[in-house]
Amino acid sequence: MKAREETRGPFSLTARRHLGRAATSAVRNRFGVVARCDPLLLLLAAAFVAGGANATELDTAKLAQVRSAVAEAPTVLRIQARGQVTETFAEGLRSDIRKDLQKLVADPEVGTMASAALVAVDARDEPALLSLRDRLVALERAHGRSR
Amino acid sequence: MGGLVEILLGIMTAVGGFVEVSEATFAAQAGSRFGYSLLWAFAVATVGIIVFGEMSGRVAAIAKQPVFALMRQRLGLTLGLFTLAASVVVSLITCAAEIGAIGLVLNLLVGGPYLGWAVLSTSVLILTVWSMPFKWIERVFGLLGLVMLIFAAATLKIGPDWSQALKGLVPQFPFEASRTDQLAYGYFVVAIFSAVLFPFETYFYSSGGIEEHWSKKHLMVNRLTTGVGFSLGSLLAMALLINSAVLFRPAGVDPQQPGTLALQAAIPFGKWGLAAALVGLLMAFAGAAVETCLSAAYSVAQFFGWPWGRYKRPGETPRFTLAWVGAFLVSLMIVFTGIEPLKLVEWSIVSSIMVLPLTYLPLLLLANDRSYMREHANGPIANVLGVGFYVILLVVAVAALPLFVLTAGGQR
Predict the structure, then answer these.
(1) CATH number of the domain at B2-406, please?
(2) C-alpha distances in angstroms, B178 versus A55, A147, B174, B182, B385?
(3) Which residues in chain B are closer than 8 Å to A81, comparing Cβ atoms?
């Protein structure tokens, strides 16, 4: 109940907390990977402000689709880097992930988050993807869908 | 010695042919979303398919009656026709899901367009069924499907929490969870029952008994194939669930595509594990595509009393041959509509569970009929299990559609 209340409104506690986390990681990694993707972090933050604004109406099915695609992308990046899969396979999976996200880009509820995720997938930005995944999981929990 | 080989081959074929796209998808999704807590649903549903599978094989061996001939006798023309139409639709949707999944796996294995692979694989399957006798069709796909055992090997390699997995075998319900999660849990129970007890499996199995001219002496083969073969096959499905609980649940991945499933073997074994997983999935889906199309043709031919059987040449059974070739082509057309294989899987699961009670009622009645079955009619244990599972199926069938709608096919 408390979590549900927190997600209401454009400047909700949850949205502010998400922004806070993004800023912290930007500081912590300002000479590393995240610094290279500052615009991406801003986009992610914007996505969550938008997500927080509509939190009470969010369809958890769509949210779960975005979260799953976002979660799969870093897994694929990691095992590809370790040479555990073929290039054809990794590219095929990445293309499936992109298609899944692209289908949701125009969606009024999760479109902003799907767009942010697409940018992170294309940038092959593992930290940004993991951060986005964690925030999506939190948003799902706030809507009664645990994992 | 020959008998032992026959039994072993029967068991291995049953293991290799047990898992198809719906079971694989729902096992993996169940593990990812609910950890080990849905293992019991596989265990209970497996007892159900063993009970009804054994019954259908026994009826085929003793009364020489396939399921759809019984349907017309016992349900009458109107209800029989309704069941026939529903069963054929379910078989076609399921076959389309299998063909779509084959296209996706080939795309990941060697690249190239998914729809192109769907066309090529359908052509190869039609040629295979056309040119091979029934026993070869069953054995080739079933035995090649054993490559799926790579997923069981992956389970051993990744080392799950076995005590938690054992607890998952005890029937349970997440009373403390949110309403959203409770509904989704209920939907997954329904989906797992439906995927394990798919009606086409019984049609195919009993028609196969008649194709192979089963008699009283095959009753032991029937008992072992269903009892041991289906149990081991179910363990393979449970391995997919466990792997998902260990690898995908913490990562937040809901495996919805065959490629994601293959990661279960790629993560512990690397490229060769990936190749084995993709080949195993390919064979499992191809075997299921053949079974569903032949099942649709068997159902129609048996219901209308046409000559049927792959032990005869295609020219001797023209309408039956047209029916199974047509089933492949219609399924391919469904794939070409662009509907995703996962959506087809969801629809086939929901529609099949609603057909199941109608499928199993005539079987239960005939297996009890001493005028046909004589001393091989159901005993008290078979009856208690049969009636018990029938009641469970009725409950599950009633709950299926509301749960499907409320949970958006388990996605909510």
Answers:
(1) 1.20.1740.10
(2) 17, 11, 9, 6, 33
(3) none
Residue B135 tokens, joined: 């026993």
A144 sits in the region (left: phi over 0; alpha: psi -120 to 50; else beta) called: left
- Which of B177, B257, B274 comes nearest A85 by C-beta? B274
Q: How far away is chain B from the Cα of A48, in angstroms, using its nearest Cα?
A: 18
Give the number of beta-carbon pairs within 8 Å between A and B: 86
| B271 in contact with A, Cβ within 8 Å | yes
Whether the CB-CB separation of B399 and B186 falls below 8 Å is answered with: yes
Over residues B190-209, mean pLDDT: 91
**Contact yes or no for B22/B93 (Cβ under 8 A):** no
Whether residue A125 has pLDDT greater than 50: yes
The model's pLDDT over B257-306, given as tens digits with 9 standing for 90+, comes to: 999 999 999 999 999 999 999 999 999 999 999 999 999 999 999 999 99
Q: Supply the ipTM of this predicted assembly.
A: 0.90
CB atoms within 10 A of CB B76: 10
Q: Alpha-carbon distance B5 to B361, whole Å?
A: 34
Distance CA B176, CA B143 (A): 43
Q: What residues does each domain of chain B span?
A: 2-406
Q: What is the pLDDT of residue B10?
A: 83
Min Cα–Cα distance to chain A from B53, Å: 35
Closest CA to B262 of B234, B245, B243, B249: B243
Confidence of residue B312 (pLDDT cuts 50, 70, 90): confident
In chain A, what are the domain boundaries?
Answer: 2-142
Q: Would the CB atoms of A96 and B177 count as touching at under 8 Å?
A: no
Higher pLDDT, B70 or B390: B390
Give the angle A56-A61-A63 at the CA atoms, nearest 5°: 65
Inter-CA distances, B190 with B62, B153, B198, B397, B398, Å:
32, 28, 12, 8, 10
Return d(Cα A132, Cα A115) in angstroms, integer.
12
* Region B233-240 average pLDDT: 97
In this prediction, residue A147 carries a pLDDT of 72
**Residue B254 to residue A68, Cβ atoms within 8 A:** yes
Closest alpha carbon to B253 in A137, A40, A103: A137
- Residue A41, pLDDT > 70, answer no
Query: Is the pLDDT reported for residue B41 higher than 60?
Result: yes
Rounded Cα gap, residues A61 and A21, in angstroms: 25
pTM (2 d.p.): 0.89
Higher pLDDT, B372 or A1: B372
A93 touches B: beta carbon within 8 Å: yes
Measured from the Cβ of residue A119, the count of other Cβ atoms closer than 10 Å reads 18
